[in-house]
Every structure is written in structure tokens, then in C-alpha cells.
Amino acid sequence: MKTKLHILTLVLLSTLISCGQPSRKKENSVVTKDTLQTSLSKKEKERLEKRRAIEEQDYADSLRLDKILQDALKIANQNIGKDKFVEKYEISPDSISVSVEINLDYHFTKTNPHLIVRRNEPSAIYIDIYTKGENKFEKVVSHEQWTMTYVNDTIQDINGDGLNDFVVNWYGANGCCLKAFSNVYLLRQDKKAFSDNFEFINPTFSPREKIIRGVCYGHPGETEMYKYKWNGEKVDTLEYVSYERNEKGKTGKIIISTDRPYGDKFKTLKVLNSVPTEYKKIEGYDWFTGNGYE
């Protein structure tokens, strides 16, 4: 009888212990889950706060820069009766120095003056171009460029139509390879307005031919060249140039195609023994061949 009582006691203790264990594991699980949720909520809150702070700063910067532009336009409007006018000054709202240049002149044609307003601050350059009307200036170009990437801007006939265009040249801050860019705004036939922005990578412009030749983005000796042609306010792709390759590498042949070798519209037009002469003088040709970069 005493032995049976001992056995019964052991069974009851085992049952109580086994029933208690899941309860403790569940409590630990809940605590871990709650801690994780709290941690995630805190990180999300911090992310949202940072995002809000950035948006507020961007908005403040936008207001500051817009006021500087409006003040510059007031000065320009006071001189709208002139065909040529230049004024330069610096202003430091919010302790951020901004250089301003107001330049009214026959920049693009001999018959229609344009106003160019530049705002240079430490992080960016803002260029706004206006056509001059009878009693007001109308914006026709607005370009923003990160100061770190800006190279220069020029006024020249890019597409060979006899009209001077506006071109901003810059160099990419990120990436491994040759990345000289040009943003082109074409002056329209009314000699007042401009086209939308055309962006080219590593271009060499030939206005006489109405052609753009250039080197695509990629490692030296492993990328392609392109050839485009102006078609009004459009650009037609004429061809791409690349090295023929097999499992051993370059074969020594040159492929002229409708697209880059991995493009959806790739089609071989012809295979040559050497690169056409017209490409050998463009900016970045050595990058295409890889000579000097081995």
C-alpha cells in the first residue's frame, strides 16, 4: 500500500511539472515577441523622424532658394527695358552663402534676348533661363546640378540647325567607369523656347553631321560605342559598335549592331575587321579599346 502511494505521488509530481513547463515557455515567448515589437517600433519611429526632418529641411531650402530667385527677378524686371544687363551679388540667408548672377543678353540669337539667373550654393547650382517678352520674363529652362558633379555649361549649336543651344556638362559621382554626361536643351525655331532635356553619356557631338557618337557605360575594353542622329526634337539610334567575343575573349572582329549585345533589339548589321575610322577620334575611344587601362 505504501509502495502504491509512492508511485501515485511520483505520477502526480511528474504531471504537475510537465504541465508547468509549457506555461513558462509561452511566457518567455510572449516577452521575446513584445521586446522585438518594441525594438522594431522604435526603429520605425526613428526612421520616420529622420525622414520628417529631411523633408522639413528640403521644404525650408526650397522656400529659401525660391525667395532668392524671386528677388533676382525683381531686379531683372526693374531693368526689363534694357537688352543687356548684368548684376552679381552674394546673399547669406540662414547662414548659407549663395552667389547670384543676373545676366540679360542676346545669349542664343541676335534678335531675341534671354535672361539667365544663376544661384550657386555649396551643394548645388541652379540655372534658370527666361525669354524676354514685352513686359515680363517667361521661364523656358530650369536646371539643377549637384556642385560635386558640375563641370561647366556652354552655349553652342549642338544639333546643326544653326541655332545656339544650352548644354550642361557634368561627371557622375557614383560608379566605376567613364561617366561624363551632357544635358542638352535645344533652342526651338521660334528662337525663344527650348526643348526638353536630352541626356547623353560620354558624347562627342558633330553638329555638321547632326550626329552624336559616344562610349557607353562599362569597364574599359568591355563596353560599346553608339551613334545617334538628331531628328528634330528626337534622337534616332543608328548603330552600336562592339567587339565580337567568344569563350576565349575578343576575336579581333568588330560587330555593328542595332543595339548593345545584350539588348532586346540586338541584331547584327555587319561584321568588320577593324573599328570604322569615324569613331577613332571621339572622346573616350581609348576607354572602348581598353588601351592603357590593362
Question: What are the main properties of this structure?
Answer:
six-stranded antiparallel beta sheet; 294 residues; five-stranded antiparallel beta sheet; alpha+beta; flat
- Portion of residues in helices? 25-40%
Low-confidence spans: pLDDT under 50, at least 5 residues? 1-27
Morphology: flat
Would you tell me the structural class of the helices and strands? alpha+beta
Radius of gyration over alpha carbons? Answer: 33 Å
Q: What portion of residues belong to β-strands?
A: 35-45%
What does this structure look like?
This is Repeat domain-containing protein. Keywords: Signal. Residues 1-20 form the signal peptide. With 294 residues, this protein is an alpha+beta fold. The chain is 28% helix and 37% strand. The chain has 2 helices and 15 strands. It has helices at 2-78, 285-289; strands at residues 85-91, 98-105, 114-120, 124-132, 137-146, 150-156, 165-171, 180-185, 198-201, 203-206, 211-215, 225-231, 234-246, 249-257, 268-272. The strands form 3 sheets. Strands 10-11-12-13-14-15 form a 6-stranded antiparallel sheet. It is flat, with a radius of gyration of 33 Å. The chain starts with a helix and ends in a 5-residue tail after the last helix.
